[in-house]
Protein 1
Amino acid sequence: MKKIKTGTLLLLLLVSFTLTAQQKQTYVMEGAVYDETGETLSGATLYLKDRISIGTATDNNGKFSIKVSRGDVIVFSFLGYEKVEYLVIEEKKDLRIRFTTASQQLDEVVVVAQGIQRKISSVAAISTVNARELQVPAASITNLLGGKVAGIITMQSSGEPGKNLAEFWVRGIGTFGANSSALVLIDGLEGDINSIDPADIESFSVLKDASATAVYGVRGANGVVLITTKKGEEGKLSITARTNFSLSHLNRVPEYLRAYDYAELVNEANVVRGDSPIYSDR
């Protein structure tokens, strides 16, 4: 009985020693780091998760070599990409690590007179409009501002085609005369808000109070509209097309008289007024 217990104990000790030896077994991991397009990344950092002091970086060809132990976790990182963790189970000489672009939530910013500022740190009265909200069928951008921007008053005086452009004021009319409307700046230059295609707008901001418009002096007394248009970007060619159509019909169509009945009524009206009939019976 004692011999069985002794043999079992020796067997357990041997298994424990073997597992410990395997866990402490060291490897040399080699491989390369790639981005989403398959290009190698030079200067990417890699280190052991619980031992940051042990690490290295990829060379000019995106290749790396690091000494690790079984069970270690290698963390790969590169600016603008999500971190990648790799658990070491066996030695590899051709390890391929592929990064994916990091999707970070940026702080909300607004366009002000001096440039771009974080919205939370701005104390001026500034309203912004999402460019997507302006990409709807309408005669002009000014027709869309009413009800979308606080403090803007719009008025459309005519529905005639070509004259159905609405006028707008920021917090009412502050000055009477030729310059009673707000100052509109398109990419820093004064322009006509109705001449812009809504699809070309990148950002749309309205400066309403004195602290926001002080840099523009008297010209900005009635508010300032800052519009930034889209610019070219690196990457694949992208083409966006949009079309819309409408069908209209009259809900109530009058019933017209026939020619003979119309002539009779006209003659009757002339006779009542003391005039002679216009149409004869022939």
Protein 2
Amino acid sequence: MEDNKNYLIGAIERADSIAISGHVRPDGDAIGSSMGLYYYLADNYPEKTVCVFLEDVPDSFAHIRDEDAMTRRMDHYDLFIALDSGDVERLGDAGKVMQNDSDYIINIDHHITNTLFGNKNIVDAKASSTCQILFTLMDEEKISKLTAMALYTGIIHDTGVFKHSNTSYQTMRIAGKLMRKGIAFGEIIDNSFYNKTYKQLQIMGRCLTESVRVMDGLVIFAVMRLKDMEFYGAKPSDLDGVIDELRTTEGVEVAILLSERAPDEFKVSMRSNQVVDVASIAKYYGGGGHIKASGCTMQGSSYDVINALTAHIENQLGVQEPEDEEE
């Protein structure tokens, strides 16, 4: 990792203009890594022009949001740093900037399905988060309190506040070092992870109430349709936390949340508890992620989508349909 650190620092020092981007519909790790790197560069390389590409950052991340950085734009970038994105498509419009208006691309990520699209790829699928990787690429003594807040935010979101299986000794050690910077870690956890608006609680309640268990209870799924989102006046980010609540249902191996983004087009979120590799399922349908947390976009009715996904799950679990009894 020291070689990667020197490589990144060298690329930054050679660049005058730098673009940073997380993936579309950014989560805590995408936001935390993008803003964490931005603040690190602003503190230690003030002569650089740095622009951040992030869409629709929720108010729960206001403690690390910087509107100037997120609205500043240039016609061309010497260096483009893609964060927490498994492929070019996940970058959305920023991907076009990366491909058409950037001289050099560094791809930093922790998704096992990463397509290695950069000129330089720093990908560690064993890391809990992109924020964890970034910490190892920075000089610890140069990390400010604000940078630490952003990195800590990303780590807690991708580890579920240190309870997911991707949490390691290294994760906890890094979190401890960030805490030593004087961050209000309890407030960060409460305000960005646990606190929900009344609208979000209504949506979660509806998803849980209308959820369905199949495969003898091994799979639970919920569907949020466009008309329901419009009824609540909700954004996709208002669904945050629903899939993790579904996953904690007793006896469930895989939880699935379908969010309709267009007629008969669903954003699929999947979580597994023990043995099912949902990353391989997501990858089959053009998505990606982690072994126990992945997503993709699928076309068809909700019934078609669930039937297709459960077929893959049944195959992994070796579930066989019962044979008809002979009379």
Protein 3
Amino acid sequence: MVSRPARTVAIVAMPRVIALDYSIAANVLGGHPGYELMVCGEPGPVAAEQRVTIVASHGLAALARADVVIVPGYTDPHLAIADAYLDAIAGSADRGATVVGICTGTFALAASGITTGRQVTTHWRYTAQLRQLYPETTVIDNVLFVQDGNLLTSAGAGAGIDVCLHLIRTDFGVDAERLASKDMVASPARPGPQPQIVDVFSPPGADLEATRVWAVKHLNEPVTVAELARRSSMARRTFIRRFREQTGMPPIRWLTLQRVLLARRLLETSDWSVERIANVTGMGTAANFRAIFRRETGMSPSTYRRLHHIGAAPGEARSST
């Protein structure tokens, strides 16, 4: 892996900050050696919910040198936020920093003006209010998180963990994300489009987890929707509907993302050729693999390997063939 300096993460200690959202970002990102964490706010203690007090380690001016700016949720998001906070958030976005709004933190991003004409999400209880207050922002309902360029916004609580793990995966690779999720005793980041809430419980025997586990073990094969439906004992249309309800996406899209995840891990942990990885991940030819990988990650396999390669994983044979 190419050696590079730690990325600076600034958590904004907003007035009325939600302690859980703040602590999620502090623990998930603060526990990773690739990040240098600072807490930014106006001078003095910040009163959070549940009688928690947070004291900023840096002033708002420090946001000017942050690579990632995290805005945790805060109570009463319809109330005004001081211009000093909004100006610092807007300035960070304008210079290209990654700006993350967790839960109602999205309201501060919108109030700063950086979400106009862009897609965001927030906790499901607040999507209608966000849409009403900021009609020029496209609010996506019932998803875990949304990325639009350098903006990342998530739902509340558990979705904050997902978006932080997504950041680690983006910055340091799939294996780094797996280690971070293991430390958190959490699953790797769930896909952003996955629903925040599911109103209909799965009837007995209808859960699709076993089918998904089987599919992941057979990514090198031409897995079809018909085969997945058969293994789930469902009609094809019923299976597609239930799969979308549980994952937030169609089966073929989910399979593509799983193949790309496997390819990322192999690029990170092995010296396998592009042709071999294309075959193992079920993406066919090297040319097809390169096209899919670039579409999904924004970079070529060789560039990804140069940035994230960490050598062979324990027990994995290294090969250049």
